[in-house]
Write a structure and sequence with these properties.
CATH class of the domain at 5-189 and 227-257 and 291-314: Alpha Beta
Order of helices and strands: EHEEHEHHEHEEHEEHEEHEHHHH
Number of helices: 12
Oligomer: single chain
Strand order of the largest sheet: 3-2-1-4-5-6-10
Radius of gyration: 20 Å
CATH architecture of the domain at 5-189 and 227-257 and 291-314: 3-Layer(aba) Sandwich
CATH topology of the domain at 5-189 and 227-257 and 291-314: Rossmann fold
Strand content: 15-25%
Helix content: 40-55%
Bound molecules: nicotinamide-adenine-dinucleotide, thymidine-5'-diphosphate
Shape: globular
Largest sheet: 7 strands, parallel
Number of strands: 12
């Protein structure tokens, strides 16, 4: 089959990227999907083992901050579009090591913008630079209200500050150089293949191993959770139908206080593991709070719903259960990522 369209996906070996790569490889057999990933601690080719031999898929190991390398990659594949997910993504790590977040999320994104701008300057028609971002750029909400696309940026962690900065650069390249960009800002994702430093897989794994469940502060911090495959579907839609220069918020309309969510997970896991009801809740331990912890995130996703017809497809209860079951069924995957380096990180972060 002739390739009609070639997309560069950065960070495709990570959590969300791997779901997106899988979706596009299956859905568009006539496209070439090129996954560029540095394979940091968060990148894992085992996430894509089922599609690695697909004829329309290629993997390239490389770093978005390397200019000459990225220029060569653009020459090699003559990309029609970029979907940029590569990033350092964990807030707690950003508090320990902010510079790494500036290097990857800010400098890496600006390098990619430059390389795309140069590569596409003589043939701009039909190109698209899609930047995948987070709702954390909008800061922290009180009890009421939602983030819309017009909410002023107010990032409060080094992670969200680095993502906010990268969003600003992407918009600057649209206004200054007419680079055909589109941006989305999404709420917290959950599902298979998420690195177990993040809340949901961390809790599932600790319940499985009968270890303490570390809840930060008073546990009343609120997040809006979205099934990762619904995020991938939204990205596909925005890539193909979103308006150039626009921003789309993506959210699950599914707010949970952390403590309620951990209770729910404990109950589901007790059921799946055949433990007496209430067993896992006894593992809950309140630990010192994250510095600058954002109280609440909640997305108003009416723009993408009204303009592009996107809706979350599954109910949290069902997505949650499927996720817990997936981690139980994929103990080998979990074992593979729980390396010595992760154990060192865990020991430093929690004790
Ligand atoms: P992740 O940490 O699981 O994956 C990031 C991937 O980027 C990894 O595969 C890693 O190897 C790769 N990477 C890191 N530095 C790189 C570099 N210099 N060059 C090339 N590759 C590099 O992250 P995720 O949770 O899948 O998030 C993906 C994107 O979506 C990020 O941009 C993140 O800000 C955004 N996002 C995430 C969430 C969420 O809930 N996880 C929500 C909204 C937006
Ligand atoms: P996380 O998954 O790190 O996502 P983010 O900080 O990007 O929203 O954390 C989700 C919420 O869970 C956040 O309020 C912090 C809290 N949390 C804990 O209470 N304990 C933990 O061990 C972790 C990792 C997070």
């Amino acid at each position: 089959m002739t390739t009609t369209h070639t997309i560069l996906i950065t960070g495709g070996a990570g959590f969300i990227g791997s779901h997106l790569v899988r979706l596009l490889v299956h859905k568009y057999p006539g496209y070439r999907i090129v996954n560029l990933d540095a394979l940091t601690y968060a990148g894992n080719l085992a996430n894509l083992a089922d599609i690695e031999a697909a004829p329309n898929y290629s993997f390239e190991r490389g770093d978005i901050t390397q200019q000459a390398y990225m220029q060569e990659l653009f020459r090699k594949y003559n990309f029609d579009g970029v979907i940029h997910l590569a990033a350092e993504s964990h807030v707690d790590r950003s508090i320990t090591n902010p510079l790494e977040f500036v290097e990857t999320n800010v400098l890496g994104t600006v390098n990619l913008l430059n390389v795309a701008k140069e590569a596409w300057k003589d043939q701009p028609a039909g190109k698209r630079f899609y930047h995948v971002s987070t709702d954390e750029v909008y800061g922290s909400l009180g009890e009421e209200g939602f983030f819309t696309e017009d909410t002023p940026y107010d990032p409060r962690s080094p992670y969200s500050a680095s993502k906010a900065s990268s969003d600003h650069f992407v918009r600057a390249y649209f206004h200054t150089y007419r680079l055909p960009v589109v941006i989305s800002n999404c709420s917290n994702n959950y599902g298979p293949y998420q690195f177990p430093e993040k809340l949901i897989p961390l809790m599932i794994n600790n319940i499985r191993e009968n270890r303490p469940l570390p809840v930060y502060g008073d546990g009343k911090y609120t997040r809006d959770w979205l099934w990762v495959k619904d995020h991938a579907a939204a990205i596909d839609l925005i890539y193909h139908q979103g308006k150039t220069g626009e921003t789309y918020n993506i959210g699950g309309n599914n707010e949970w206080k952390n403590i309620d969510l951990v209770h729910k997970l404990c109950d589901i896991m007790d059921d799946l593991l055949g433990r007496p009801a209430g067993t896992s809740r006894q593992l809950i331990t309140f630990v010192r709070d994250r510095p600058g912890h954002d109280r609440r995130y909640a997305i108003d996703a009416s723009k993408i719903r009204n303009e592009l017809g996107w809706e979350p497809s599954i109910k949290f209860e069902e997505g949650f259960r499927q996720t817990a079951q997936w981690y139980l069924d994929n103990a080998d995957w979990l074992q593979g990522v729980l390396s010595g380096a992760y154990r060192e990180y865990y020991a430093k972060q929690y004790f």
